[in-house]
Amino acid sequence: GIQVEQSPPDLILQEGANSTLRCNFSDSVNNLQWFHQNPWGQLINLFYIPSGTKQNGRLSATTVATERYSLLYISSSQTTDSGVYFCAVFSGGYNKLIFGAGTRLAVHP
Amino acid sequence: DGGITQSPKYLFRKEGQNVTLSCEQNLNHDAMYWYRQDPGQGLRLIYYSQIVNDFQKGDIAEGYSVSREKKESFPLTVTSAQKNPTAFYLCASSIWQGAKNIQYFGAGTRLSVL
User: Fold this and answer.
1) What is the dihedral of CA A98, A81, A38, B60, to 10 degrees?
2) Which of A33, A72, A80, B100 is at 20 to 30 A from A99, Cα to Cα?
3) Given an 8 Å threshold on Cβ–Cβ distance, is A96 in contact with B58?
């Protein structure tokens, strides 16, 4: 089946720093989403981004489908950005979202 | 408020007991999903349903059962056959548009074994 790998697995930042999270996938996909799981477990949709670039405030994402990767940028990080960031891809052949293992982010004041 | 409501937030199961987790959505979404998350891990699909009265097994369906009698509701039963049920369970829903399947999640239920 399709493999989704996220890096780095863990990331510690000082408030105000920038970071880049990466998601690699092993096969062509027609749907890619980024989620943030807060410390209470709630998953929040960040981006639906099968290709191209999108921005939402301090967050932006880029997917290069032909090269099978996506990047999530966090600028001027805040303590509320802490949590786990998941990338998930939808492969029509499997008819389901497949999640990576996540990147755990801790932002310290 | 529109959204997905999971209940209870915390649930304890005794040995040999079946327990049912509730998931209700008022987003008028066609599709609903159940995922299991173990500590430090990603999400794994248990069951999903694209329409009422139909559902499909996901990757880890053994020891679980579901029903979809109403569009708004997709309860998950963790049966006694599930020997390691302690986990965080997340319900999601989406409009079924093929590849454009954007899923929205409830707040989750934490299940522990007594």
Assistant:
1) 20
2) A80
3) yes
For the segment A55-90, what is each residue's pLDDT rounded down to a tens digit? 999 999 999 999 999 999 999 999 999 999 999 998
Report d(CA A50, CA A90) in Å as an integer: 9
* Chain A residue numbers touching B107 (CB-CB < 8 A): 40-42
The token duo for B46 is 């248990």
Euclidean distance between CA atoms B66 and B75, whole angstroms: 6
Tokens encoding A20: 């880049």
Interface check for B95 against chain A (CB to CB < 8 A): the answer is: no
Contacts of A36 (CB under 8 A, 6+ apart): A43, A44, A46, A81, A83, A84, A85, A86
pLDDT 10s digits, B17-68:
999 999 999 999 999 999 999 988 899 999 999 899 999 999 999 999 999 9
Please give the biggest Cα pair distance in chain B: 41
Statement: residue B100 has pLDDT above 80:
no
